[in-house]
Specification:
alpha/beta, Rossmann fold, N-(1-d-carboxylethyl)-l-norvaline Dehydrogenase, domain 2, 3 domains, 8-stranded mixed beta sheet, 50% helix, globular
Length: 427
């Protein structure tokens, strides 16, 4: 299955491409898509698909939910109209491509289904089982999960080779990155089809080997968690966030966690902790704030207060944690946070989760890593792989084994592959 437009005329044929096409066998194009889950993410994905010119079904459990999703799609397009990026008639033409549904009646001819329902393995498994009964055998079943195992979702299905992870980032119409995650049984053709489909949506597909947190969340969460650890040890939240903005990130880690939702951070953090152990043990302050009902911007307060309330929940929570841990205060620095991200990037590289260039591209497109620093691995090359190793070893001594350097760093330093200054490093 490939994505394309036979009438476009913008892809010149040559002998190699013809031979490649013939080697693929029967060519099937993605003509129609469906998205299940009409919340902000699902509606955003549906808008992205319709904007590419494909018809898409947006399905949810009842008409009220579907109507809310269609309203979100319209609002996204209306924003483009107001900015002069499209006309009102263009908007209506795109909206005509989006059809709301509360059942699977129209799924008999869809070529790809993307589910964007809540993160529950049982729900996703049952959903895909029901889709196999109504969709054609060639239909790709993609999950937008940010943390659940694709292999587990596909387990027990009749056609596990058609199941794949297709992780969009929020907000889907804006964020360019899509992680493409094959499970253990995913077919090569399915990976190629979804990669091509992602490119047709004007997104950047990054192939990621299945692992807890996939790629971006795996690298992001240790960085966010360390900010929370620094906070509970006594660092000022405004100082933490300002330091990371000064580093070049679009917002500070505590502000970002409030936007994501501390409940979501807790959920993802627990999954990573279960997979990778003590080095990513969640900071207690995150769960304490969740228990106090402070989930971030959506509840009016998280690490920061957004609804004007005056309370001492954060200060009291920090005081209790310091009492329980002996009140250890350690120095805060932006490098302390960044080196955890760099180290996790190196561990992911040595595990084969993704290629070095893809790791950096994912963090540039998915997180807003500073363009001038090129991504965590380019940044390591810039400051020196030996410097990264030495600083991680020092932090291991002062802050603990979560900073234990990736073995690849020691091998590279021993080989003299120190980055820019020696002309050879990760790149």
């Amino acid at each position: 299955m490939r994505v394309g437009d036979l009438s476009s005329g913008d892809m010149p044929l040559d002998a190699a491409s013809v031979e490649r096409d013939l080697s693929w066998g029967t060519t099937m194009y993605i003509y129609k898509a469906a998205v299940i889950g009409a919340g902000a993410m699902g509606a955003g994905i549906a808008q992205v698909i319709s904007f590419s010119g494909l018809p898409v079904i947006l399905r949810d459990v009842d008409q009220a939910a579907v109507d809310r999703g269609l309203a979100i799609v319209r609002k996204i397009y209306q924003g483009r109209v107001e900015k002069g990026k499209m006309t009102a008639s263009d908007m209506e033409a795109k909206m005509a491509l989006v059809t709301g549904a509360t059942d699977d009646a129209g799924f008999g001819d869809v070529d790809i289904v993307i589910e964007a329902v809540f993160e529950d393995l049982g729900v996703k498994r049952r959903l895909f089982q029901s889709l196999e009964a109504v969709c054609q055998e060639s239909t790709i079943l993609a999950s937008n999960t940010s943390s659940l195992s694709i292999s587990s979702i596909a387990a027990g299905l009749k056609r596990p080779e058609k199941v794949i992870g297709m992780h969009f980032f929020n907000p889907a119409p804006v964020m360019k990155l899509v992680e493409v995650i094959p499970g253990l049984s995913t077919g090569v053709e399915t990976v190629d089809d979804v990669t091509a489909f992602t490119e047709s949506l004007r997104k950047i597909p990054i192939r990621v080997q299945e692992c807890a947190g996939f790629l971006v969340n795996r690298l992001l969460m240790p960085y966010l968690n360390e900010a929370a650890i620094a906070l509970q040890e006594g660092a000022d939240p405004a100082v933490i966030d300002a330091a990371m903005v000064a580093f070049g990130l679009p917002m500070g880690p505590l502000t970002l966690m409030d936007m994501i939702g501390l409940d979501v951070c807790t959920h993802v953090g627990d999954i990573l902790h279960d997979a990778y152990g003590p080095r990513v043990a969640p900071a207690p302050i995150i769960k304490r704030l969740c228990q106090a009902g402070r989930l971030g911007t959506k509840t009016g307060a998280g690490f920061y207060v957004y609804d004007g309330r005056t309370d001492a929940v954060l200060a009291e929570s920090i005081a209790r944690i310091q009492k329980e841990t002996g009140g250890v205060r350690t120095p805060f620095s932006a490098q302390r946070l960044m080196l955890l991200m760099v180290n996790e990037a190196v561990i992911s590289l040595q595990e084969g989760v993704a290629a070095a260039g893809d790791i950096d591209m994912a963090m540039l497109a998915g997180v807003g890593f500073p363009q001038d620093k090129g991504g965590p691995l380019h940044y390591a090359d810039q400051i020196g792989v030996d410097v990264v190793l030495a600083e991680l070893q020092g932090l291991t001594q002062t802050l603990g084994p979560r900073f234990w350097p990736a073995p690849l760093l020691k091998r590279m330093v021993a080989a003299g592959a120190l980055g820019v200054k020696t002309g050879r490093g990760f790149f």
